[in-house]
TrEMBL record, chain A:
Keyword presence, Transmembrane: yes
High-level lineage: Bacteria, Bacillati, Bacillota, Bacilli, Bacillales
Main location: membrane
Source organism: Fictibacillus fluitans
Identification of the protein by name: Branched-chain amino acid ABC transporter permease
Family: Belongs to the binding-protein-dependent transport system permease family. LivHM subfamily.
UniProtKB/TrEMBL annotation, chain B:
Family from the record: Belongs to the leucine-binding protein family.
Protein's UniProt keywords contain Signal: yes
Keywords attached to this entry: Signal
Residues annotated as domain Leucine-binding protein: 36-380
Gene3D superfamilies recorded: 3.40.50.2300
Signal peptide segment: 1-21
UniProt organism field: Fictibacillus fluitans
Family annotation (Pfam families): Peripla_BP_6 (PF13458)
Name of this protein: ABC transporter substrate-binding protein
Amino acid sequence: MELIQQLVNGISLGSIYALIALGYTMVYGIVKLINFAHGDVFMVGSFVGFYSITVLHLPFIVSLILSMAVCAVFGVLIERIAYKPLRNATRIAALITAIGVSLLIEYGFIYVRGAQPEAYPGDVLPEHAVHIFGAKINSQSLLILGVSVALMIILQFIVHKTKIGKAMRAVSFDAEAARLMGINVDRTISATFAIGSALAGAAGVVFGVYYIKIEPLMGVIPGLKAFVAAVLGGIGIIPGAMVGGLLLGVIESLVSAFGYSLWRDGAAFIVLILILIFLPSGLFGKYKREKV
Amino acid sequence: MNKRKIAGVLLSLSLSAGVMAGCGAASTGGSGGKETIKVGANLELSGGVASYGQSIAEGLQLGLDELNKKGIDGKKIKLVKVDNKSEAAEATSGSLKLVSQDKVAAVVGAATSTNTLAQVQIAQGNKVPLITPTGTNPDITNKGGKVNDYVFRTCFIDPFQGTVAANFATDKLKTKKAAVFIDSASDYSKGLASAFKSAYKKNGGSTVAEEAYVAKDTDFRATLTRLKAAKPDFIFLPGYYEEVGLIIKQAREIGIEAPFMGGDGWDSPKLVEIAGPKALNHTYITNHYSSGDPDKKIQDFVSAFKKKYKGKSPDAFSALGYDTAYYLADAIKRSGDASPEKIAKALAKTKDLSLVSGKLTLDKNHDPIKSASILEYKDGKQEFNTKINP
């Protein structure tokens, strides 16, 4: 019974990691860049949701969509301003820029509104307790899980059934060849940033509703954990990010369940180290032999 | 020609700098007969526990305004504020700035024990008294059996809060099995917990579970599920409001109905926003004072505070900030020349000083002996439960 409760805890946490991890993985898949500013897009999304619920008095779903839209624009802006000029630079230059952008967003945000935390109002979603096999499950966590799964299904649809998805897959496979085939690579990359950032924005709102407290540096740890989740599943692979996120959430909950709650953050990074040693391309990655 | 000009400018600059430096030293040196005394405030005005620092600053300002109206032996106190951003490193550098650049006669701050401990060395090294309004960790004034001559506090100490909580849990709530859930990164939390455990054991109860978290965590469900399995009938949670709010909310969600109790770290309006009024029912805190206490001195303070801050009700932090102003003013009056060393000596001899948070007498460790109030949350409002004397 306790184990079921712990699994539910882990899956709710994991679905938030998964939503953020998707953005990491999509961007990496297409431009081979670890976008460290992604966790901060998540934070911005959370605050957009907060203000649209408390100031504009919008319902949950509308706030969610608004936050996704704002984050999509924000993500494209970051890409256009910070990363596009570095498209042909070394990867380390782009990586350092990403860290710089991340710090700029965090501390710029603190400069504008201060570092004090905010609390999401408690009545955004109806609250019921559902009892299954003796575990008490909050209806909010079920809804959150539902939102996450729905977004992932929509994402799969976009990537596999639409023209832009096809373009994304083509650019990811070989950008030069895609360009020769008449695909607008810049626009495809922007679209990837837009979709990834929108998912982070959604994760931000979901996080706010579920965990109540939000603050300007809230994106740092979930961002790093989501990065671990993306690597765990195999970075660049979309289903890998989902499975990686859920798995990481469950691992963390189980570590706490066995009484090592202080080791929980450590466990996530131990997973990262183990994966990099034993399965560098992740659970879903294919082993690629370097051709000489 | 040109060179001479520059030399002239430099010379006049250095001269005026010398004069200004002289002024600065004269107005703060405190060798008697000066009009203003500079006092520094090193508080958490932004960051994680900003609401503590802001409340203290409001109370302190109200107290100083009242005192300045009458004057302290014809002198006025000027407050120099520094924001330590709720971080220990910022608290250290802020204190250093106040002592070495502003040359203050005393420093008030910080709100939390951790940020106060970060300033102790500077106060001791520069021989400038440091008064924390709300830093409750015993180590602040007394480290390893040695009293810090220049460090003082307006509040009672952690062991006292932990002991009061344990007595309340066994005598009033009639509980036998307690769980303790602490913030492993906070000296304050650990101090309260260890005092609670020993007092609870002495009263015949047992601690059935002990868990820890780290500040800034947001997901406690896994650990709480584990706590629930131990079936405690009382949970002691000595943390700060940001995490406490989340913990109580999540605990009620997974079906923990036992009463929670904590210390003054809970005292913030944000706690009610985060946890929600319903989840907070059946929770208690030990605190320095209650605005619902019928005592006249307290009610006078409450109405003065409401008048100054547009109907805002003062929390314990504001009350202790206000008390700190009077505590310091009393010592300045007795010190004679308002020099940092004399103020420190006068502070150490404070006896039976009547304040909003109770009558204050310092023991030999620079720790006040005073009463504690127990408050209960009812639908998001703090209600005065009882007052416990030392």
